[in-house]
Design a protein that fits this description.
The structure holds two protein chains of two kinds. By secondary structure, chain A is of the alpha/beta class. Chain A has helices at about 60-65, 90-95, 115-125, 130-140, 160-170, 190-205, 215-220; strands at about 20-30, 35-45, 50, 75-80, 80-85, 100-105, 175-180, 205-210, 225-230, 230-235. Chain A contains seven helices and ten strands. In chain A, helix 3 packs parallel to helix 5 and helix 5 (about 160-170) packs parallel to helix 6 (about 190-205). Chain B has helices at about 1-20, 20-60, 70-85, 95-110, 135-145, 160-200, 205-210, 215-255, 260-295, and strands at about 60-65, 90-95, 125-130, 150-155. The model of chain B has no long low-confidence stretch (mean pLDDT about 85). The chains are: A alpha/beta, B alpha+beta.
Chain lengths: ~250, ~300
């Protein structure tokens, strides 16, 4: 197992403050199933990282720990400078505003328009209407949906739905974007469009962590890859492919 | 501003939630109305009977009928003696003429004229003894029944009436409180379930709210307000219903139960405040229980 703590990712300065730091993290469920064991990962600000591994390898648990849906049974998870184990419950919403997250199934509200779906994330965190009107349109521009702002989700394609979800995830200007299988429901061409959008977002300074099974994309992108197997981090390699190449 | 936005958000979402889940919300509201109507009925009846009780307490508790042709000196001595007994508030002497006048007045009040057909009827002279507490009734009566007290011919008390009324009030209060507890439990159950269904039907939305960083207050309060809305609407509807039937009830409270007119005029306002308070309280409690058990795991 290679520890990322000892080695910064390629292209990232060693002293850059990490967005994510996992130290000896273990997660064992009450039924005894070990979801993660001794995971050590440091993801610096601005990195683009793929999280790969077969189903049941621990990718979902990894993500749930980052957004503090669960707490590790051992070790320490630090996100954006905050130790999640020591974080008070009432501070969790503030953490989640620092992390944008998108899913394979988009998780949009079907009765709200594109604009309203993005605005919803601001509305439920107490933003004013003026702030909503100021912040939503640029995001819809960024994801290329400014002309669809009045459309309902049922009127959009899969790629467009994922763009709305990405716009919503970015609405609080997060330090990190977590994408959990964002291309899982999309055709190859649309998948590449979404990847291009994620690259664009990463180039604007947002750290991106993308869990995926899509070998083609990982192999073509040649970014940092974290590979999980049976809850263990078996590979942490920069400029890497989906499978081990040595 | 942030707090105002939060309140506006929670109220709007509660209103939308109420109508989105209209069947359950209206059913819960109907049970609130049922409970509050029952509560209104109980409060009206108990208040009426309490007023009647106070009226009896304030009136003559013991009447001592005097022997015929009792000399004034003995009568005055008897009055002085009775006034000195423990628990006696006051004594009024009713002469045979006064008694006859009262009888005539009673007939007149019923629209009749007392006609004795010229018979030489003379009513008893009596002492009407008011007490500080109806519980002294028996001891005063026993003292005057003493065979040495030859001035007194016969004693009547209101103790039996008082105790009968007290028993009726006690029974009604007990039955009413039991019925209210049962209906209140059903109301709580209905509200808890209504909010539970609302939480489940909006699970997707709650999940999104959590992920985008909505605080617990933003997630929970719309549901709590939705329960309060059931109680509020239930309370307001019941107040309207009571106000509609109050016009025929008020004279009954005044004439039959002897409720003072001023008290009767204020009664509706007090009852409305109680109904609104209980409605809001039950709504808040039910939704709080539901949110606590159904949302704590999710947030």
């Amino acid at each position: 197992m290679i520890s990322a703590i000892d080695r910064p990712a390629v292209g990232v300065e060693a002293d850059a403050q990490p967005v994510i730091s996992m130290v000896d993290v273990g997660m064992t469920y009450p039924n005894g199933k070990v979801a993660l064991a001794d995971v050590n990962v440091v993801i610096p600000r601005g990195d683009f990282v793929f999280l790969v591994g077969p189903s049941g390898a621990g990718k979902s648990t990894f993500i749930r720990l980052l957004i503090r849906e669960q707490l590790p049974t051992s070790g320490r998870v630090v996100v954006a400078g905050r130790d999640l184990s020591r974080m008070r419950r009432r501070d969790v919403p503030r953490l989640r505003r620092r992390i944008g997250i998108v899913f394979q199934d988009f998780r949009l509200l079907p009765n709200k328009t594109v604009f309203e779906n993005v605005a919803f994330a601001l509305e439920v965190t107490g933003s004013s209407r003026a702030e909503i009107r100021r912040r939503v349109p640029p995001l819809l521009n960024l994801v290329g949906l400014h002309e669809h702002d009045e459309h309902l989700p049922t009127q959009l394609s899969g790629g467009e739905l994922q763009r709305v979800a990405i716009a919503r995830a970015l609405v609080h200007d997060p330090a990190m974007l977590i994408a959990d299988e964002p291309t899982g429901n999309l055709d190859p061409v649309t998948s590449w469009e979404i990847i291009q959008l994620l690259i664009q977002i990463n180039e604007l300074g947002t750290t991106v962590l993308m869990a995926t099974h899509n070998q083609e994309i990982v192999n073509a992108m040649r970014r940092r890859v974290l590979a999980l197997e049976h809850g263990t981090l078996v590979r942490d390699e920069s400029g890497a492919a989906y499978e081990r190449e040595y | 501003m942030g707090f105002v936005r939060f309140i506006a958000f929670a109220v709007v979402r509660a209103w939308q939630g109420f109508w989105r889940n209209a069947m359950m919300s209206l059913a819960a509201t109907a049970t609130v109305i049922l409970m509050l109507v029952l509560l209104s009925g109980l409060l009206i009846v108990i208040s009426g009977l309490d007023s009647g009780l106070k009226f009896i307490e304030s009136k003559v508790a013991v009447t001592a009928q005097l022997v015929d042709d009792l000399p004034d000196s003995q009568r005055d001595a008897l009055i002085a003696y009775v006034e000195g007994l423990p628990g006696v508030k006051g004594v009024i002497y009713v002469s045979p003429e006064d008694a006859m006048h009262r009888l005539e007045q009673t007939y007149l009040d019923r629209g009749l004229k007392l006609d004795l057909g010229g018979a030489p009827i003379q009513l008893y002279a009596s002492l009407e003894i008011a007490l500080d507490d109806p519980n002294f009734s028996q001891s005063v009566a026993d003292t005057l029944k003493d065979p040495k007290r030859t001035e007194v011919d016969r004693i009547t008390t209101k103790q039996a009436d008082y105790e009968t009324l007290l028993n009726i009030i006690g029974t009604i209060r007990t039955v009413g409180v039991i019925a209210l507890i049962l209906v209140g439990t059903v109301v709580l159950f209905m509200i808890v379930n209504t909010i539970r269904i609302a939480v489940y039907s909006r699970a997707n939305e709650i999940e999104i709210m959590r992920l985008v960083g909505a605080s617990d207050s933003f997630i929970r309060w719309p549901f709590i307000l939705e329960g309060i809305l059931c109680g509020l609407i239930g309370g307001l509807v019941t107040i309207v219903l009571v106000a509609i039937v109050w016009d025929p009830i008020q004279p009954v409270m005044v004439t039959v139960f002897q409720m003072p007119t001023a008290v009767s005029a204020q009664f509706l306002a007090s009852l409305s405040a109680i109904l609104l308070g209980v409605g809001l309280g039950v709504g808040a409690l039910g939704s709080w229980i539901s949110v606590r058990s159904n949302l704590s795991a999710a947030t």
